[in-house]
Amino acid sequence: MRRKLVAGNWKMNGNLAANSALLNELVAAVGHGASCDIAVCVPAPYLAQCQQQLVNTAVTWGGQDLSAHEAGAYTGEVAATMLADFGSHYVVVGHSERRAMHAESNALVAQKTLRALRCGLTPIICVGETLAEREGGQTTAVVGEQLEAVLAVLESADLTRLVVAYEPVWAIGTGKTATPDMAQEVHATLRGLLAARDPVAAAGTRILYGGSMKPDNARELMAMPDIDGGLIGGAALKSVDFLAIIAATSIQ
Ligand code: PGA
Questions:
Q1: Which member of 133, 167, 185, 187 is catalytic?
Q2: Alpha-carbon radius of gyration of the chain
Q3: Is 89 helix (H, G, I), strand (E, B) or coil?
Q4: Quick one: DSSP state of residue 226?
Q5: Are 32 and 245 contacting, i.e. CB atoms less than 8 angstroms apart?
Q6: CA–CA distances in Å: residue 41 to residues 10, 25, 195
Q7: Which tens digit of pLDDT belongs to each residue from 164-198?
Q8: What distance in Å separates the CA atoms of residue 133 and residue 138, rounded to the nearest whole number?
Q9: Which residues, at least 6 apart from 172, have a Cβ–Cβ distance to it below 8 Å?
């Protein structure tokens, strides 16, 4: 049985005061134990704040991107070792906003994934199709190519250490969600690709759904057999919504 993971993707939101209140509310509600794994992926300047407020709690933290390079003359980039220095557990890799706005290729996403794993971070690898690709019947091909590029550079042993997030681009921040059946179909495809590489490891790899997951649709999405949690954008910024999604993982 895969333990569910609910990860917040704060994107470029927050400030010290607001974060402090949000993190305190999360910790007060989930304390030191929860029925699922919980993470917040925050802008890099706030990793220290997370470390300070979340150490020894049930809420873990991580980054939203990392450099494909180890260190050196890469102005503005953040290395995997730096995320690890601040106790990060996770890092989002290949989010569609980075693929679209920063021209991140499948090959770059693969290199970043490798870098994260080698530093002991758990990469949350995002895949997903645009509306035009879905309407053109290309969903399976697009997400398949995105995942295969990553699998191509990994060892089988890495498979249990990564998290995949299916995030249809047309559902992100739009209020449009994939129906549970639509999401399950893609999740099953992704699991099939993982299984072709290593069936035992694939059974343990968590595949999250992301794209307008909210308290009112989380339960039915999470009930699907291959949906192992959520990557939550907008609803992660309000403790009541994020906590309701966390609660939805245990009401099946
Ligand atoms: P959303 O974002 O929940 O606001 O749609 C999800 C994401 O981009 O990870």
A1: 167
A2: 17
A3: coil
A4: T
A5: no
A6: 6, 16, 28
A7: 999 999 999 888 888 999 999 999 999 999 999 99
A8: 5
A9: 96, 97, 128, 210, 211, 212, 233
Q: Which CATH number applies to 5-248: 3.20.20.70, 3.40.50.2300, 3.40.50.2000, 3.40.190.10?
A: 3.20.20.70
Q: Say which amino acid occupies 95.
A: H
Report the half-sphere exposure of 146 (CA within 13 A, side-chain side): 26
Domain ranges of the chain: 5-248
- Is 69 labeled as catalytic in the residue annotation? no
pLDDT in tens, 15-66: 999 999 999 999 999 987 788 999 999 999 999 999 999 999 999 999 999 9
- Residue 72's region, left for phi above 0, alpha for psi from -120 to 50, else beta, is left
Place of tokens 């990793």: 47
State how far the Cα of 185 lies from the Cα of 165, in Å rounded to an integer.
14
Cα dihedral value 162, 165, 169, 170, nearest 10: 170
Ligand 1 pocket, Cβ-based, cut-off 6 angstroms: 9, 167, 172-173, 210-213, 231-235
Distances in Å between the alpha carbon of 15 and those of 61, 67, 215, 237? 16, 23, 24, 11
Closest atom of ligand 1 to 236 CA is 3
Tell me the two tokens of residue 49: 């704040």
Q: Which atom of ligand 1 is nearest to the CA of 232?
A: 3
